[in-house]
Amino acid sequence: MSGTTTPRDARAADVPLQRERGSARGRSERRGADGGGAYGDGAYGGGADRWAVLVVLCLSLLLVALDATILHVAVPAVTEDLRPSAIELLWIVDVYPLVAASLLILFGTLGDRVGRRRVLLLGYGLFAAASAVAAFAQDPHVLIAARALLGVGGAMIMPATLSILRQIFPERRERALAIGIWSAVAAVGAAIGPLLGGFLLEHFWWGSVFLVNIPLMALCLPVGRRLLPESTGDGDGPWDVLGALMAAFGLFGVVLGVKRVGGGEAVFHPATLGPLLVGAGLLALFVRRQRRRTHPLVDLRMFARPAFGTSVGCIVLAMLALVGLELIATQYLQLVLGLSPLETGLRMVPLTVAAMAAGLFGSRMLQRFGPRTMVALGFALTAAAVLSLTLMGEHDRPGLLATAFVLLGFGLEITLFGAYESMLSESPAEQAGGAAAIGETSYQLGAGIGIALLGSVMNAAYGPGVSAVPGVPSDAARAAGHSLGEAYEVARRLGGPDGRALRDAARDSFVHGLHITLLASAALLLFGALAALRLPRTMECESASAVVPCDSAAPTADGIPGQQTRARAPITAKPSA
């Protein structure tokens, strides 16, 4: 009948659209010096090669995650050897995450233009060279410069690992498994950093915490050069150098200001407020510039997709609620319960094991429950774990602590897993580097803001309890109000009944502040659970004819259910016979 369109006619009419999509995606995924761009059914469409690539990517991420925490235990040894000033010591610790967070968007989008493999390999080389300089530094300024170069290398590596993973696993179910492994490795790296650093310091000098990077990078560089596929984005238009610099300096200013607030500096201090205002202004100009450009550095229209914008928001909320809490919990274990650094690390093992398990089983959970339920459930479990920790007081309760840490690790990991997977699946393949950089930047910003926000809550609840202890001079009380560790030092100098009174008051106030901070963190997590309700209900995969749930069969060309097709696999137009 002339007025009726049959399913076969609809499919025929859809062929030009499929070919247009195929040409756009084909351009982005067929480029590469090694011919490794055809990820759909080519060299990385099957077999073990892509899983070997995943091993290389995970090893790269492990080193970057290790370097973010391994230096913490070496700070006393560095202080004794190099004698840095307080400001120099602060920069030694903070310059690595500060530089890395600032450059993620720059190098993520640069990889989309010049090649993700190329940027990743350059990051390997720079990371190894900077590690060697840091290990043998004889001056605080040399160590600061080396740590800054490590941040540059880390910014090259982090988004490239996730964007290459996006390319070599086009089928969404397999990609979910790969992201689970990737996220589990990140959790392991951050957790074992202090333990590995403590072991190295017991047997070697402080520079060994940097030297451990060199043999692993020496392995990654040739293996990665051989195995890693090259890929770029669509390559249309020039790369926006000015926009990249605006993003880098804007993020640097915002992160620097947030870190100063988290370190206890006044918000309205010129050295804090200045970077915050300048950074925020540059980021606002960056957003305005990207919206006006025909070929933007970052396609901000991705945020108009509910799944992408919500996923980024969930990453920020998860880190905002938990990173500051982690630092406070470490102080609680050591200063209130009196555990050694090694005992503190061992108490965190259940959290790490639970996070690993969640990463490895997350793909099955995502297919079964879908992104909305999984992320909301993760937030709810984490909030329950945080609330249960309010039962902790001045006496050790190891069973309660272990149970709460298991729930915390599992809940946090499935939250971040579901959010990262949804964010990456919603981004176009040709902008995988930019999307990965946005995810990593939101992670870093959430962590920095969390330290500042929860640290402020903690200080507001802790300070009044030590401000008016009978028999303690006002200047000593002010010093004790800075932190529990400083309060213990002041109490030791005072000695006698006044010192004991100050010590007891400081410990009681810290526990009270911890409970208030836990409640604030739980409120943020519950807000995250509500925000996660905007995510898709099911995990959807694309086929040539329909978008279907990943756990169901897609219709074939004849309308008969068949096997599941690849998610967002490139659709290439072949000439007709």
Automatic annotation (TrEMBL):
Principal subcellular localisation of the protein: membrane
Cited InterPro entries: MFS (IPR011701), MFS_dom (IPR020846), MFS_trans_sf (IPR036259)
Residue ranges of every copy of the Major facilitator superfamily (MFS) profile domain listed in the record: 53-540
Residues annotated as transmembrane: 51-74, 86-107, 119-138, 144-165, 177-197, 203-221, 241-261, 267-287, 308-333, 345-362, 374-393, 399-420, 510-533
Keywords: Antibiotic resistance, Cell membrane, Membrane, Transmembrane, Transmembrane helix, Transport
Region (Disordered): 1-34, 554-577
Domain of life: Bacteria
Positions with biased composition (Basic and acidic residues): 8-33
Record keyword GTP-binding present: no
Membrane topology: Multi-pass membrane protein
Lyase recorded as keyword: no
A Pfam family matched in the record: MFS_1
Subcellular location(s) of the protein: Cell membrane
Record SUPFAM superfamilies: MFS general substrate transporter
PROSITE patterns: MFS
Name this protein carries in UniProt: MFS transporter
Source organism per UniProt: Streptomyces pathocidini
